[in-house]
From TrEMBL, chains A, B, C, D:
Substrate binds at residues 130-132, 167, 174-176, 227, 252, 258-261. ATP binds at residues 15, 76-77, 106-109. Residues 7-283 form the Phosphofructokinase domain. Pathway: Carbohydrate degradation; glycolysis; D-glyceraldehyde 3-phosphate and glycerone phosphate from D-glucose: step 3/4. It comes from Winogradskyella litoriviva. This is ATP-dependent 6-phosphofructokinase. It is found in: Cytoplasm. Keywords: Allosteric enzyme, ATP-binding, Cytoplasm, Glycolysis, Kinase, Magnesium, Metal-binding, Nucleotide-binding, Transferase. It catalyses: beta-D-fructose 6-phosphate + ATP = beta-D-fructose 1,6-bisphosphate + ADP + H(+). Belongs to the phosphofructokinase type A (PFKA) family. ATP-dependent PFK group I subfamily. Prokaryotic clade 'B1' sub-subfamily.
Length: 328, 328, 328, 328
């Protein structure tokens, strides 16, 4: 028999991303729409263990759809990795009468939810929130589209100064495991080369490409480097290498860092968050559990947590080719 | 036998949209990559008739990927609607040795290209560029994503003042035939109601909805109105109606207008433009003609002009429901 | 003997402006710094009459420095214009133990404060908050610098489309009595002509100037029109006039409206607000009353309310000349 | 007898800054207005020595007022530091008939102009363009206001993530010799502490201040560090120090770097650039030479190069106090 859901908790976990607040708002309002009580759980699983809950109604999420970060705050929780920690979390949820939760986060957060579900048969749903877009089962994670615009906007500024001085810039962007951000902002910002975790361009080809670019009349160049690029050099090491091997360039480095995570979400991310929150709540209501909400071909979709966690998000290889053609 | 393409012309036609410059750049560079000469055709079909061509190489499109508007300028051409006009255009193209062209624009521009192709068996390809996203055969037109962000950003600003004064705002956004912009920015900006060409909400339901919203404790409200909304009232008439029928609100109106067309393209639009330009050029090279390049499920796609022109872009009805839930 | 101030109220009144939240934050924190209790008064003088007060400590203004609008909300109050209304307001303040207030607003708000001070000998200070910069006694009002950037940014977008189509745009910006915004954004956005309340350019000279500009090779033009421009024509009437008298232009109109009031304050406005809040609180502490805080030559300054209200903010005539030269 | 100026050169030199293009435009149009020919000199003094000149008329600076960087490009020139280099530059200018120039740049560029003037009695004027605002004789340099907004905008984004995770961020901003940027963005972004070249806060006081802030209930903190801060520690060393001495914080670092130089100029910088260009040209016309144009109390002003170069731009000490109060 289908257990009726009466109180849903919502938390954000792991690294924050633009659109998390819009997703919280959506979960809260979808609950209100379906006459379900909703509780905000602060500081991710850490706050779950501490019983740091607060009831939220439709009005309590007013004015947050366009705010970066997460009003529920986020944290990584070592305690939740232990059986004891999860037991306390379960007790706290039960105490508060919460009978299901939606976790907004990434791979690690979903793994935690999956184990929790297995141990306590507790209904859980996930919403993918991370700027890296490194999650299987959805073409877009919350915050990814916003991050692309944030990064492209910053690189446009750096290009102003690069092209005024005929300089070469190595710009490090986020992406430890996948090159989505690097690849798209590389094309979007007109980069000369893009170094990603998926492909080893090789230092020689990089230098050769920069030489060809200089010869073709380009006065300045931007090279985008994902954190986890395959060459395995940091942007600073790349600078040193080029300094030694290419006298023709004055090289500069920029590490974009945490600013990439912040800012007001793009329209796309706000709409996506709104859709995902509704889908998560309505999936729980209809008895589903242990899934991640995703978007595929502009349709809401569910992927079992174990697949979402095991699967690998793949870059679009067409983009590598487009990038090559564009940097002619 | 396949006729070899040696010189490709590129033009922008109809209303301008962010990403057109990125598409021009892509066409030019894809030509350079394939050792094809490329000519910019100024002021759309009008400039084609005037023979207003200029050769463009890879360097001549430097620094335009992030610029709004179109460096080739755009225009509507009455002459091109006549057989005589098109004959002159054909003669001018032949004179310059141009043996194919890519037109970046909307429905009207594609119709022109299709007729031109029929009359002269001249290879043509289209790239959909319009903020309205009202073209069949592609899930996204160039400029649409940028416009969503531009509009949401402006509505965020209006909301600052709306919520400081407990006001109701009617905001008119673009969309004569389809409600894509209205629907998405409505959700993205947290609008109370969204009036679109596809659905007749009815004035009574609008007033009722606003009353319910006031009763629920909301202090300010935003109603998004697409230019071509089904109720058939202008934002000014809507204001008058509410002024007369709802004493509880102080009503204001804002018509966003042409600013929606401008601005630096989003990362999405820059990448889309880059992909579309490559696809258009390479399709011409492989002997294809009379198609519009589109994107479907993140894959480049071709739609015959006659289908693109006859078909209708449809809104996602799920969004209407999400909007209802979000405005609880 | 100097009466010791123990509780200070703070309110925002009249039209909202970016920087008001930063000023509220500053008043609250300056109070906390000096061990004075601070109360937020909601909805301007209307909330004062209703006794709508809430105690605010340093943490309660967290995260608002960069938000547009006003968290205390604003309103116009007819009741406060009556002796009875003000008596109730006084009683409510006394009841709550509030013994001074800082009002953030414009001319009308200061007049109210001045009368209130005369009637009840109640210590009051004013902080000028309005995007129009139309207040005597300060070179900058809160929100003015932000509005200039907001407007210039929008006009940049309109110019993208204007120059793509060889169009003439009449753009209406705020400024009923003074042309500060029009004059500065006119220069900043490279406008052809600027119509302000201070000067009657005359329709003939406008048309002549536009003709000269066309002849000089300009393909598109922007004319900035302050709401209260001296010619006395609305932007729509101007369009009609030019449509009739200048066949060479395709004319469009844009009324920017309320978006000009919103948005995150510029760095300048945030710093100015922070300085003004401190100055207002410390002036009250040292026994001053009935003054408006202002900035002159980058130094904080006090102007008696009666002078601030009677005086007139003047535009910098040098800018008119610069504008003429720039539009050659 | 006053030598008539017939051809004026304009160049940008040293680090680029937003507003440089607006200043170039202004110099070119002021020349056009006064019927003087104007030549753009590429790549600063380096291009002067190479005779890299191009004639510019009013139309050739179209559409650049809102662009970051410099269309004339900039460079540092070692050759111009030699007598021989300057002699060649002089010969090239004479050859082209250029009889005066306006240099847009910083201290070093003015020193070069001053020496050149002494050696060849060649009329020169300077316009201060640098985001650091570190030049004596003007309250604002070109680009400074824009940089403040750029930086504050980025810190707002970092704060989104900082406050979602209860983190402490050390953010390095530009300012080797003066703390203008650090001080203003520190107040504007609500920083906990601001480390500037002018004042040695001391590591102990920093730690103490952070402890007090944590105790007062603040969950996250931002510390702004000017490149040339007096403590003499890099942001990375500061992080290490706090990591060792304050277990209560999770510390992160962000070095903003070159993005601070780019971007579309603020309205203030565009207007300032327009005014300065006119002033520079008209000063040359009236026979003045060897001055830097500046702004003081919103009035255009001239400062002899030797004073501009020797003098020191001072921070406003009131801001230090305001910052202390705001971070309570």
């Amino acid at each position: 028999m289908l257990q009726t859901i009466k109180k849903i908790g919502v938390l954000t976990s792991g690294g924050d991303a633009p659109g998390m607040n819009a997703a919280i708002r959506s979960v809260v309002r979808a609950c209100a729409f379906h006459d379900i009580k909703c509780y905000g759980i602060y500081r991710g699983y850490e706050g779950m263990i501490d019983g740091d809950f607060v009831e939220m109604d439709a009005r309590s999420v007013k004015g947050i759809i366009n705010k970066g970060g997460t009003v529920l705050k986020s944290a990584r929780s070592n305690k939740f990795r232990t059986k004891e920690g999860r037991q306390i979390a379960y007790d706290k949820l039960r105490e508060a009468g919460i009978d299901a939760f939606v976790v907004i986060g990434g791979d690690g957060s979903f793994t935690g939810a999956m184990i929790f579900n297995q141990e306590f048969n507790f209904p859980v749903m996930g919403i993918p929130g991370t700027i890296d877009n490194d999650i299987y089962g959805t073409t877009h994670t919350l915050g990814y589209d916003t991050a692309l615009n944030t990064v492209v906007d910053v690189i446009d500024k750096i290009r102003d100064t690069a092209s005024s001085h005929n300089r070469l810039f190595f710009i490090e962007v986020m992406g430890r495991d996948v090159g989505h951000i690097a690849l798209n902002v590389g094309i979007g910002a007109g980069a000369e080369e893009i170094l990603i975790p998926e492909e080893d361009l090789g230092l020689d080809r990089l230098v050769e490409s920069l030489r060809r670019s200089k010869a073709s009349g380009k006065s300045s160049s931007i090279v985008i480097v994902a954190e986890g690029d395959k060459i395995g050099k940091s942007v600073f090491e790349l600078k040193d290498y080029v300094d030694e091997n290419m006298a023709e360039y004055e090289v500069r480095v920029s590490v974009l860092g945490h600013m990439q995570r912040g800012g007001s979400p793009s329209c796309f991310d706000r709409v996506l968050a709104s859709r995902m929150g509704v889908k998560a709540v309505e999936s729980l209501i209809t008895g589903k559990s242990n899934y991640m909400v995703g978007i595929k071909n502009d349709v809401m979709d569910l992927t079992p947590f174990d697949q979402a966690v095991k699967g690998k998000s793949k870059i679009n290889m067409e983009l590598l080719r487009v990038s090559d053609i564009m940097s002619i």
